[in-house]
Amino acid sequence: MYNKTYLCMKTTLKHVLTSCSLFFGLLFLVSSCIAPNGEKAGASGVLSVSDAAQRVYVAPGKYDEFYAFLSGGFSGQVSVYGLPSGRLFKVMPVFAVDAEKAYGFNEETKPMLMTSFGFLPWDDAHHPELSQTNGTPDGKYLFINANNTPRIAKIDLTTFETTEIIEIPNSGGNHSSPFTTPNTDYLAAGTRFSVPIPQKDVAIASYAKNFKGALSFISVDKKSGDMNLAFQILVPGYDYDLAHSGKGKSDGWMFFSTYNSEQAHSLLEVNASQKDKDFIAAVNWKKAEEYLAAGKAHDFPTSYYDNSYDESTQMATSKQVKNVKVLIPSECPGLMYYLPTPKSPHGVDVDPTGEYIVGNGKLSADLTVHSFTKMIDAIQNEKYDTIIEGIPVLKFEDVVAGTVSSGGLGPLHTEFDGKGNAYTTFFITSEVVKWKLGTWEVLDRHQVYYSVGHLMIPGGDSEHPWGKYLVSLNKITKDRYLPTGPELDQSAQLFDITGDKMQMLLDFPTVGEPHYGQGIPASLIVPNSKKIYKLEENNHPYATKSEKATKVLKKGNEVHVYMTTIRSHFAPDNIEGINVGDDVYFHVTNLEQDYDVPHGFAVMGARNSELLIMPGQTETLYWKPQTAGIIPFYCTDFCSALHQEMQGYVRVSPKGTKTELKWSLGE
Ligand code: K7E
Ligand code: CUA
């Protein structure tokens, strides 16, 4: 049985998903002792349906206690939920175009998705991470990684809008990212796939010789929040899977898990599972700062994009950066170390005190916990097992603090409740296991439905968790909800973790695949939430601040419509003098200054999305008329009793016809 499991666990995630259906047989056996409400009756974990319902019930008009931000995985977005209700409030577009909000469709946001590969309409977003102050999530920003084309995005939590996306060069997949240091000095971005650095045309079989990894550190400006690629560390060509920052006593360090220290380049499910141990890389970023200041970094030519949205001009702009500072470990003693860690660790998680570094060895049943104190001691005594490309490898027995014999299979991720307990997800056995830091004793376990990846406790990867709820983020839901054809939702399951036993309260479907989440008390976000954009602060170059100022300018084929919208009309609403094939830009300013009165704008036949314009905002829709005739446009957001009257016409004349240019309202 173990061998079978082991083989199964050696496969890639996708294969695991398939081959592990075997385990559902088992799960269904187990399910015979599950109460009809889906809640397993544990010894002291018994919870009646009405009790559970009461504890997640948020009465109409009342607010939830926590925000939960769940990544959309292959949807490329982030969704915002309330806890404990599980209600979905918003899907925030980040790495994928979103026709609902015109993200990536209007002229203002198109530059956000520019990369060195051109305009990219999609990515795979895994790890939301809240900014922190003094080791505590502060509710200012939410960061998230793009896994496919390496990038990090920043979302401003006053507007819930993506305001910066920075590309990470020399990376082959930005998975171990964007984990923050306790004061958001840096975000980590380790490469999942090693590649030639700089890129070049080589034989794939020359992997061991030519492929390298890069661990990137992105600084975040304390005032402006501006992200910059501060430096990279050139490391051996392994797969750098996940990361977490040191904190408390280990502040100043960043830890990255690795797999494929075998340096396989094909059939990794077998070839990257040969060695008994891979590594957790410990990087001393304060030391890196010293080396940078001492001029030890190499300037590597490169090219990457840094795109920022300016709230004042309401425009995103792209800037290209051509250089990166690179540190090489063999030239920088003390910069980093490898901690041997069994069985292709996936998550690496640091407890709130900063002493324990948990390696979630996904091919293992046990969890390995390293001690920061022991690590420092081994470093001071230079007790090295070996040195790889200038990176000392410490001895396993010199750094290990303990092992958790969990009884589960396939540990992936761990979070903490701030009361000395840790909670680890087990993908294969579909459960969350609660254990005690220091004694490594298993205290409780609870089945989840099914195949959990990450879990999330609000603040659970920070120094100060709010240890009230735990959310398990599950990959498979085959018999949990009404069927929706072959594609089913992923799910989140909410637990109350205030008692000795975890109690499952709620089960709700999610948008996309929520690999990871972050949670924070609503009280840290609500007071700063923006309600409108002030018209007088709108510095958009095509803003129109009054109906009197509306106009249409035409120069050759290029037409700029300076339009306004207010309940319940557009100005102008009749436009003539436009020809087939013109490049028409509708710059629509929403003159409203009331909370929650957006207007929409859509043009028949436009090969584009709608616009959805917030009060005080200007957005631009590009339209190239294809045929002559009369083209209606209208407001798409039901904004008043006369919403349906919010409409207008554009007359499109054949190419070359000289129709007089005119525009009007109410004539
Ligand atoms: Cu485990 Cu991308 Cu964090 Cu998915 S990752 S589960
Ligand atoms: Cu404006 Cu509907």
Provide structural commentary.
There is one protein chain. This protein is mainly beta. The protein contains nine helices and 46 strands. Strands 6, 7, 8, 9, 10, 11, 12, 13, 14, 18 and 19 form an eleven-stranded mixed β-sheet that branches. It has a six-stranded mixed β-sheet with strand order 42-41-44-45-39-46, with no helix packed on it. Strands 36, 37, 38, 40 and 43 form a five-stranded mixed β-sheet that branches. The chain is globular, with a radius of gyration of 27 Å. Residues about 1-45 have low confidence and may be disordered. The chain binds sulfanyl-(tricuprio-$l^{4}-sulfanyl)copper and dinuclear copper ion (CUA).
* Weakly predicted, low-confidence segments: 1-44
Number of helices: 9
| Unique bound compounds | sulfanyl-(tricuprio-$l^{4}-sulfanyl)copper, dinuclear copper ion
Number of strands: 46
Estimated share of beta-strand residues: 35-45%
Pairing-aware structural class of the strands and helices?
mainly beta
- Spatial shape: globular
